[in-house]
Design brief:
Strand content: 5-15%
Distance between the termini: 22 Å
Number of helices: 9
Largest sheet: 2 strands, parallel
Order of helices and strands: HHEHHHHEEHHEH
Number of domains: 1
Helix content: 40-55%
Shape: globular
Structural class: mainly alpha
Strand order of the largest sheet: 1-4
Number of strands: 4
Length: 154
């Protein structure tokens, strides 16, 4: 995102939440989904088997996934939000918060920007063309080699 906004790169791979923020910084910034399809991704939570305080970890997860807490991702990290309760909470909230730029906004305004953005809320057609990343197994060294070439510009 930074290299694109600074003019140091003309094209790049940018996560959708970062692209949403980039467009807020510079409306000329455009995010596109390739015609060939994009890949679907998700964040996941994990807990190691011998965690010293598993109850605390579960308490944190339960807290952070509550709609009245999780909606804050619309404000601070505007990635695609899978928590329907959080989206509904933001849509109907009437209080005022500060957005990423320090402006006074309502959660409903953040919700509306999220819903109207093709970056954070891709169309059904984009999702139909999307795919998940598959384990490439023994071909991994080839993928690593090709990706190294892409990154190095050769």
């Amino acid at each position: 995102k930074s290299a694109l906004l600074a003019g140091d790169a003309d094209v790049g791979f940018v996560w959708n939440g970062e692209a949403f923020l980039a467009a807020l910084e510079d409306p000329a910034f455009k995010y596109v989904y390739p015609d060939e399809g994009t890949f679907l991704w998700q964040d996941g939570y994990g807990l190691v088997a011998d965690a010293p305080h598993p109850d605390a970890a579960y308490a944190w997860l339960n807290y952070s996934l509550q709609p009245d807490v999780f909606w804050l991702t619309l404000r601070d990290f505007p990635y695609t939000n899978p928590n329907r309760g959080a989206l509904e909470y933001a849509r109907t909230a009437t209080f005022i918060v500060k957005d990423a730029d320090g402006n006074d906004v309502s959660p409903a305004e953040l919700y509306q920007a999220y819903i109207e953005s093709n970056v954070t809320n891709p169309s059904a057609e984009v999702l139909r063309r999307a795919h998940t990343i598959k384990d490439v197994g023994e071909a991994l060294p080839l993928y690593d080699e090709l990706w190294t070439e892409v990154k190095s510009g050769h």
